[in-house]
Each structure stands twice: as structure tokens, then as C-alpha cells.
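Per-residue structure
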Amino acid sequence: MNFENRLISGVFIKRYKRFFVDVQIKNKVITAHCPNTGSMKGLLKEGNKVWLCRSNNPDRKLKYTLQIIEDNKSKVGVNTHLTNKIVLDALKNNLIKEFDKDIVIKPEVKFGKNTRFDFLITKKNYKAFLEVKNVTLIRKPKIAEFPDAITSRGAKHIDELIKASKKGYEIYIAFIIQREDCNQFVIARDIDPQYSELLSKAVKKKLNILCYDCKFSSKGIKLNKKIKFKI
């Protein structure tokens, strides 16, 4: 997955109104779009180095989009709009070994009345739903965690995946760690105990958990290696 334009470095000042961040670029302060609705716990420290992209859309009020924050000398991808693009690129290039080659991939597929899953993956006599979650939180060295706030939407997706399983679909959640400094992933039970409990029960009902970290370059972000998951 490549960025829309080249990255521009700056220094983080503050986030406000959820979608706005002030960033110092050289001798000026600009307001950029923050494409992350989560708490971004542990990342919003004044003085952190950040990277942004300038939009090609001339009608956008906010010309820049926040892409990466540096946390303890490690790059963290904070643009949740890119997570599905990272996964789609990985699926097309057979980087997720849990899925065969020559699969048919359909993004944003409706299930039931009020649910859309991130991907429907099909092959002859095979169909699977894949839901994707973006992970940025670290509170202990090398251990990534999800969620960083209570996620009622995440709980709903687990319930709907179980319903899909009963209709013959294989079901997956992929936790994509947009970092390079982790070797383990856990669920943050203290932050959202309900989500932790639902996920544990769902695994016993054939929910498959995938967990990968990412590799950063000046051009983009790609899926990297599989990370150990501890339920």
C-alpha cells in the first residue's frame, strides 16, 4: 500500500475535536486531518515526530493528512483508512498464508440487515468473511494491545461473525499492528472486558484470529510478519 504523496515530517503539537491535529512543519503550524476515531492512547505526546501527506483534492479544507506518529523511536501508522488497503494488498500478493492463491476478494460486503464485513473471500466450495482491526496501542515493551477504548462496534462484529459461521462461512478477524516494535499481541481486557470475553467465546466457536505487524518505508506501509497472539 503506497501513500498518496510523499511524506512530510513535522512535530506533533495537539489533537482536538477528534479529527484535527496541529503540527509544526519548519517554521509554521498547520492543522491537519486526523483519520483515526480511536483514543490513540499513548501516542499524543507533544513533541513527537510525525509524518503527513498533502492531499491531491483541491477542494479539501484540510490539505494535510496525518499518517504516522513516532513513539519511542518506532513508527506507528495511525491512519485507520489505510488498514484495509494494507490487507487488500497482502491478500492480492498472497502474503496472508491462511488463504489460498487464486481467491476472489470482495471488499465491504453486506451481511444481514445492518452489517458490512471488510472482506468476503471465496473460492470453489469455500467462502469466508474477514473483519480487520487496526492496532496501535503498546503499554508494555514489545506487546501490542487492542482495543485502546471500549468498542461496541467491535463487539457487534463478533456477534455477526458468529451468525455468519452458522450459515457456512469461515470467519476471521485480522488484527493489523501498524508498528514494527512488537513480538506479541494481547486483548486489553482491562480496557474493554466485554470485548475480551466475547472474543474468547467466539474463538471456541471457530473464529480464526490473524495477527500481523507492518513494515514502513518512505513510499508506503506493507504487511510484514505474523505476530504471536495470546488469548
About this structure: The radius of gyration is 18 Å. The mean pLDDT is 95. Residues 152-166 form the longest helix (15 residues). Helices lie at 83-92, 152-166, 193-203.
